[in-house]
Design goal:
4-stranded mixed sheet, alpha/beta, 2 domains, 379 residues, 35% helix
């Protein structure tokens, strides 16, 4: 991953925060220049994210290799290896009396280890890959503006222009604490021929990803809880016409409810069983619609020209079930930093000859741009 891109992204995020804080401090909406700059910065961040994603997928493997006189990547690899070795040593020797905590001096969880947990959570969730991620500490107020309510029309010189019906509002993202714990056999930890660190990272990340993805789908808020796609308002929902039936026409109508300006990055989100049902849709004569000349457009996980994201955490088909989401999932905003607190629990499971490894993460989420996403609701 390009260090320059990451640094540029961090600078842009900081600039957006400064614009937000200034408007908040002066208790006003954005000025025109601020709005234009905010949108430009947000667009550049999206471009950087795509470039980073392409790099991670190996999209530049055929390009000329540029020499790296400072051996930055090699140093990063060496540092990560050193961090893993130190972490494993701390787990084995239990140097920190009350556990090992990220961010403290002395016996710390290395930043690279904490980052690996969060990175794996993000990379294993299709929802988080497409959501708007804010790596920001503390509370964050996101400006929300529905351009479809903005009045634009012809103007006659000397007349009075009409006020806009749309106004800026804000969605607040605060700190919600989530945590998980995994138990590891002491004999497994003590074996010198096994590096237990990847196992720990994987187990913690899987547990966090499973919970977070479920909340990003079904969360409806409340004190100390995440908000998710289930926040979607009635106006963005389409109610099925027949119980336990989804038709091709309903899918087409649902897709076209999203404004065309958002269609470029749209995707479907549903449970695997719902997708299996849609793949089985057939004509009156029994011919499957899901063929190269039908809904699939020649690709297994495409529907009406858009990718299909599957999640076991999505509701299955049922009465009043929010069965299918379609839209640009960047409308879901998630505040999620790489600061993970990891603790080693020595005595709690000592009688089981096991060691507990817990991880805590502060984050928050909200459907901040609901106009980007629509939902199919079972009758």
């Amino acid at each position: 991953m390009s260090k320059a891109l990451v640094e540029e992204r961090n600078d842009l995020v900081e600039e957006m925060e400064n614009i937000l804080e200034l408007a908040k401090k002066e208790k006003r909406s954005f000025r025109v220049a601020e709005t234009n700059r905010f949108d430009k910065v947000k667009g550049r961040i999206a471009e950087i994210d795509r470039e980073i994603q392409l790099e991670n997928r190996g999209g530049y493997e055929n390009m000329k290799v540029i020499s790296n006189p400072d051996n930055i990547e090699q140093r990063d690899l060496e540092q990560r290896a050193a961090d893993e070795k130190a972490f494993l040593t701390w787990v084995k020797e239990a140097r920190a009396t009350g556990g090992i905590t990220a961010g403290s001096n002395g016996g710390v969880i290395p930043v690279s280890i904490a980052s690996l947990i969060v990175d794996q959570v993000k990379n294993t969730s299709d929802i988080l890959k497409r959501a708007t991620i804010w790596d920001v500490k503390g509370d964050l107020n996101i400006p929300v503006y529905d351009f479809t309510q903005h009045v634009v029309g012809y103007f006659t010189e000397g007349s009075t222009i009409s006020d806009n019906n749309a106004n800026f509002s804000t969605v607040a993202l605060k700190n919600v604490i989530i945590g998980t714990l995994t138990k590891v056999s002491n004999s497994f930890i003590n074996r010198s021929d096994i590096n237990v660190v990847p196992f720990l990272i994987n187990e913690l990340a899987k547990a966090i990803q499973w919970f977070v993805e479920g909340e990003l789908i079904a969360g409806i808020g409340g004190v100390g809880k995440l908000n998710g796609l289930a926040q979607i308002v009635a106006g963005q929902q389409t109610l099925g016409a027949t119980t336990m039936v989804i038709t091709a026409r309903e899918l087409i109508d649902l897709q076209l409810k999203v404004p065309q300006t958002y269609q470029r990055n749209c995707a479907w989100l549903m449970h695997p069983t719902t997708f299996a049902y849609i793949r089985g849709l057939a004509t009156g004569s029994g011919e499957l619609l899901f063929t190269e000349s039908g809904l699939s457009a020649g690709m297994d996980y495409m529907l009406l020209g858009k990718p299909v994201l599957l999640s076991d955490r999505m509701p299955v088909m049922g009465v009043n079930s929010l069965e299918i989401y379609y839209g640009d999932l960047s409308g879901l905003h998630v505040k999620m930093t790489n600061n993970v607190e990891v603790k080693v629990l020595l005595e709690r499971y000592a009688d089981q000859y096991q060691t507990g490894i817990s991880a805590f993460l502060e984050m928050d989420s909200a459907l901040a741009e609901p106009q980007k996403i629509v939902c199919y609701k079972g009758k």
